[in-house]
Amino acid sequence: MTTTREFQDITLERVREHVWEIPKSGEMRVPARVLASEELLEQIGDDKTLQQLKNATQLPGMQKYALCMPDGHQGYGFPVGGVGAIDAEEGCISPGAVGFDINCGVRMIRTNLTYEDLQGNEEELVETLFENVPSGLGGGGVVETDVKTVEEILERGLDWAIEEGYATEADRLHCEDEGRRPNADADAVSEKAKNRGKNQVGSLGSGNHFLEVQRVTDIYKEDVAEAFGLEADQIVVLIHCGSRGLGHQVCSDYVRKIEQRHGDLLAELPDKDLAAAPAGSELAAEYYGAMGAAINFAWVNRQLITHQTRKVFERVFGRDWQDMEMELLYDVAHNIAKKEPHDVDGETRELYVHRKGATRAFPAGREEVPRAYRDVGQPVIIPGSMGAGSYVLRGGAESMQETFGSTAHGAGRTMSRTQAKQDYWGETVQDELQEQNQIYVKAQSGATIAEEAPGVYKDVDEVVRVSEELGIGDAVARTFPVCNIKG
């Protein structure tokens, strides 16, 4: 069995099955670890992911090791699929290790419809969803509002959506952090960011964001699936998007402020895209508040899309959404940094856990897990490509020890968008998905479909297999696409 691998002058040592380590050397403060099978490691080693992961170990206060999940790929500064737990008193917080799309995340809505109920309605459903859920670049949302309302959303999250009639109490209880970050500070968000957000509340955006109607094809853990309200042949809806232009502006604003106020720290880092503010500094507190506000915005964004989706289902199927039991299973964030207590060398310490393209995966018993799921573990939703299906997992027993309570967030790209548009023709991909797999796709352009062709993603089955075998996330159910709309 291979004990070492080398990619672009970086040597990885095999710690055990699916665990590879870049040993601490030079300016590295801790080792780096990649969680991957040999097949996935080949893809991860094919771009700048490993160098970015190695660079991340130089962030002050990094604990144990910087981590790359099985779906990892190159990002800006910090790899997508990266997890970095940094001391919240003596370390730093890094907008670069959170990413530009703050709280890009995913939610799943259950229904009591079966695949048979849906058959024959696919084209009407995909067309009506596309007409009623804003997507693509630029403005346009379910609501177009003013800065004052955006500030309320930033401060209150799903509480605002409940008050305005877009959400229910059950929606709030089945969302990470119950849909509201207590530290959110709208005053720490710039007017430019708020103005970008006011016309985008309730919109998918572009890129890899999507709304997908799916059917449950496989159940792996009956008891957990029952707790999650999932059963074979059931129709569910997956919504994947984030904080749109507002979140991007927040990240840009604070990277610029770090350059101005903490250039000394930035100068010590190997990549300026890792920009970080020292823990305890005024800027660290400001960014944490602004990020919390953008997180709230993203939860409201996905909630308004949920509201529209419920209305579309009512129109297409001629029944109230409550009658179709269109309830939120769970909403989980991907690009986020949160203060969490974790065990480090036998001592409980408060850490800024940065998850950039990674999912929180807390096991059973953690109080952060919604009461409905506390006995079985937190739901984890891992989207695959629009031709391969997705998975629902539950937080694994080993996640706290191995990954600071984290696992993968999707299949992970293997090809750039530019290369994808050279290799694929959007209309051809669209036709093949419908003819061969009965998957109905609608997007703003053929180029968008080409960029998101199934062939540009890693094998989601392999990503989930590694997660399971490491004990950081256990497969509960598998789903397969029926209808998909993209920006």
From TrEMBL:
| Native source organism of the sequence | Halohasta litorea
Reaction(s) catalysed (UniProt annotation): a 3'-end 2',3'-cyclophospho-ribonucleotide-RNA + a 5'-end dephospho-ribonucleoside-RNA + GTP + H2O = a ribonucleotidyl-ribonucleotide-RNA + GMP + diphosphate + H(+); a 3'-end 3'-phospho-ribonucleotide-RNA + a 5'-end dephospho-ribonucleoside-RNA + GTP = a ribonucleotidyl-ribonucleotide-RNA + GMP + diphosphate
Query: What is the protein's name according to its record?
Result: tRNA-splicing ligase RtcB
Indicate the enzyme's highest-level EC class.
Answer: ligase
Q: Where is the signal peptide?
A: none
Q: Which Pfam families does the record associate with it?
A: RtcB (PF01139)
Q: What does this protein do?
A: Essential for tRNA splicing and maturation. Acts by directly joining spliced tRNA halves to mature-sized tRNAs. Joins RNA with 2',3'-cyclic-phosphate or 3'-phosphate ends to RNA with 5'-hydroxy ends.
- Note down the stretches annotated as region Disordered: 173-200
EC number(s) reported in the record: 6.5.1.-
Indicate which residues the UniProt annotation says bind GMP: 208-212, 334-335, 383-386, 390, 409-412, 486
Binding, Mn(2+) 2: H240, H334
What domain of life is recorded for the organism? Archaea
Q: How is the cofactor bound?
A: Binds 2 manganese ions per subunit.
Question: What family is it from?
Answer: Belongs to the RtcB family.
What are the protein's UniProt keywords? GTP-binding, Ligase, Manganese, Metal-binding, Nucleotide-binding
Q: How does it assemble?
A: Monomer.
Q: Which GO terms describe its molecular function?
A: GTP binding; metal ion binding; RNA ligase (GTP) activity
Catalytic residues identified in the record: H409
| Positions with biased composition (Basic and acidic residues) | 173-194
Residue positions annotated to bind Mn(2+) 1 are D101, H209
- Protein's GO biological process: tRNA splicing, via endonucleolytic cleavage and ligation
